[in-house]
Amino acid sequence: MKSLLLGAMLLCHIPSFAVEAVQFHFQVLGTSKTSSMEKEMNEAAQAGFVFQSVMGGETAFGGKEVIVIMGRNPAAGSQKAYRLFAANKTSTLEKEMQAAAETGYEYKGQTIFESAFGGREVCVIMERDKAEQAKPSQYRLLATSKTSTMEKELADAGAEGYAVVGMTVAKTALGGSEVVCILRRAAI
Q1: Per the structure, how many domains does the chain have?
Q2: pLDDT in tens, 5-37
Q3: Where are the extended beta strands (E) located within the chain?
């Protein structure tokens, strides 16, 4: 009984610390054009918002569009810039991503986007921290309809130092459903 009383008295003397809850603010962006989305994301970034998530699909009122969630933590201070790329040919997308990477942009997310002009395309979001010096990465895109082939190609790329950063299943320009993997490694 004495030890229980002593424990209760000690607990009364431990100071309590107030924990301030972190509050996030969000913007939900939706458009049917990738160029409009890139503009909207960069406008949100100027107001301190950063990329959180992306998904392409059909919404009740917007039709076929890409939806992006941007979030802002008032305590965070760095400002970001964004690039969006959409293509139905993996070679085109890889070239666009590599060009952006050479100026400091890094992969952040991808989805399948169905546009009025381009059909079903892989849409990739890349982000650059304006306050940091560019440290370019190298990107490789792999696309195949057979998982066994993808496993072999991933093993070969992994041996070269590439890591998987994203994956989608998409109908590509060649007409079939393919697994599209985006890989990254530090620039050599």
Answers
A1: 1
A2: 444 444 455 555 555 667 889 999 998 888 899
A3: 25-31, 50-59, 63-72, 80-87, 106-115, 119-129, 137-144, 163-171, 177-186
